[in-house]
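batch_manifest entry 22 of 60
target: Protein LITTLE ZIPPER 4
source organism: Castilleja foliolosa
requested by: lab member K.T.
priority: normal
notes from requester: please return tokens only, no post-processing; we will run our own comparison against the previous entry in this batch. if the run fails, retry once and flag.
--- input ---
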Amino acid sequence: MDEMNSKLYLENCYILQENEKLRKKAELLNQENQTLLHELKQRLTVDSPAPGNSSSRSKNRASKSGKK
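--- output ---
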């Protein structure tokens, strides 16, 4: 019985260590995802035309392409 308890205790310790490793890895991945999401939002904000300016941009592009 003591031998079984010892084995179970060691197995539990191993599981706890693995859980801690996975928790840290998940935290790093979450931070990376948050950073990437922030970058994506910034790019979308910079790349998207301001409201009301989209028609003038289209006209400018059309006139530039027509001049060629």
